[in-house]
UniProtKB/TrEMBL annotation:
Reactions accelerated catalytically: 5-oxo-L-proline + ATP + 2 H2O = L-glutamate + ADP + phosphate + H(+)
Family: Belongs to the LamB/PxpA family.
Record InterPro entries: Glyco_hydro/deAcase_b/a-brl, LamB/YcsF/PxpA-like
EC number: 3.5.2.9
Keyword Nucleotide-binding in record: yes
Name of the protein described by the UniProt record: 5-oxoprolinase subunit A
One GO-annotated biological process of the protein: carbohydrate metabolic process
Role summary: Catalyzes the cleavage of 5-oxoproline to form L-glutamate coupled to the hydrolysis of ATP to ADP and inorganic phosphate.
């Protein structure tokens, strides 16, 4: 039986500002990427999300991003590799501490937004992020874009890595995600998202926006928690995977 992880970016509220339906989505995913306070989140939100994830037996991951609340961490910043290293160490520490305080542990690290996309194609940034994870805890799993520099950097360092694919995003011919500012970057149709997921997991293929299929490795499927369709996607994708006889399990069990 094929196995895959289903993850979601969560804990992205801030104070009185609420984003996403975290508690409900946690009923369907197996891994939670929890915002660390830079692009979104705050100490109380981290604690609450960690506690919810533990209560629902969902594995916990740190979701470090760029310090850009206004842009939700989705705008590129001109940072050095050393700055990337320090940002990631700092943010992993925040979520790891709350996980420990709540009686749990950290399973993985997945960079967020622009930091994730920058590291996907930038070897120097990718190696700095991988090193940061390794030095905090070499047993953590690095979750990165399938086939990216980030995954390669983790493998080179000896980290356990997982290749991530997206249910609600389209792909370019080179395997990169279509930039959000471009037309057709986001998939809003449930059937299209489900079909894409099943094809990636069972066939190792995804159709690019150029119309040609590309090879892809799907260890974990991402659903964006801030998407208006997130809860519906999470439930329907989980059900579709079960119907296709695909086991949905946390990254640590793959």
């Amino acid at each position: 039986m094929s196995k895959v992880d289903l993850n979601c970016d969560l804990g992205e509220s801030f104070g009185l500002y609420k984003i996403g339906r975290d508690e409900e989505i946690l009923d369907f995913v197996t891994s939670a990427n929890i915002a660390c306070g830079f692009h979104a989140g705050d100490p109380s939100t981290i604690q609450q999300t960690v506690s919810l994830a533990l209560r629902k037996n969902v594995a916990i991951g740190a979701h470090p991003g760029l310090p850009d609340r206004v842009g939700f961490g989705r705008r590129n910043m001109d940072i050095t590799a050393r700055e990337a290293f320090d940002m990631v160490v700092y943010q992993i520490g925040a979520v790891q501490a709350f996980a420990h305080a709540e009686g749990g542990r950290l399973q993985h690290v997945k960079p967020h937004g622009a930091l994730y996309n920058m590291a996907a194609g930038n070897k120097e940034l990718a190696e700095a992020i991988a090193e940061a994870i390794y030095k905090v805890n070499p047993e953590l799993i690095l979750l990165g874009l399938s086939g990216s520099e980030l995954v390669l950097a983790g493998n080179k360092l000896g980290l356990r890595t997982a290749n991530e694919v997206f249910a609600d995003r389209t792909y370019q011919l080179d395997g990169s995600l279509t930039p959000r500012r471009q037309e057709h970057a986001l998939i809003k149709d449930e059937a299209q998202a489900i079909n894409q997921v099943v094809k990636m997991v069972k066939e190792g293929k995804v159709d690019s926006v150029q119309g040609q299929p590309i090879s892809i490795q799907a260890d974990s499927i991402c659903i964006h928690g801030d998407s208006e369709h997130a809860l519906v996607f999470a439930e329907k994708i989980r059900n579709a995977l079960t119907q296709e006889m695909i086991s949905v399990t946390p990254l640590a069990n793959l």
